[in-house]
Amino acid sequence: MPEAEPRGDPVLSSGAGLWGLVNNAGISTFGDVEFTSMETYKEVAEVNLWGTVRVTKAFLPLIRRAKEW
């Protein structure tokens, strides 16, 4: 998976920073545990857990900048 990174939005490049971040993405699966593959569980964790971590890490410098602004 590629790392998340902020792109050239003029608001973000103004130097003001970012006051908040909403990680609002996720996938779900349903069904009996014994019939759901480990690959499916890994995909859910990749998106819901590691996707959130990637996006947060990418925007954390901008959030910290907002504290200084």
From TrEMBL:
Coiled coil: none
EC number: 1.1.1.30
Any one cellular-component term (Gene Ontology): mitochondrial matrix
Superkingdom of the source species: Eukaryota
Pfam families documented for this protein: adh_short (PF00106)
Major subcellular location class: mitochondrion
Any Gene Ontology biological process: steroid metabolic process
MF annotations from Gene Ontology: 3-hydroxybutyrate dehydrogenase activity
Catalytic reactions on record: (R)-3-hydroxybutanoate + NAD(+) = acetoacetate + NADH + H(+)
Swiss-Prot/TrEMBL keywords: Allosteric enzyme, Lipid metabolism, Membrane, Mitochondrion, Mitochondrion inner membrane, NAD, Oxidoreductase
Localization: Mitochondrion inner membrane; Mitochondrion matrix
InterPro entries from the UniProt entry: NAD(P)-bd_dom_sf (IPR036291), SDR_fam (IPR002347)
Subunit structure: Homotetramer.
Family listed: Belongs to the short-chain dehydrogenases/reductases (SDR) family.
Protein name: D-beta-hydroxybutyrate dehydrogenase, mitochondrial
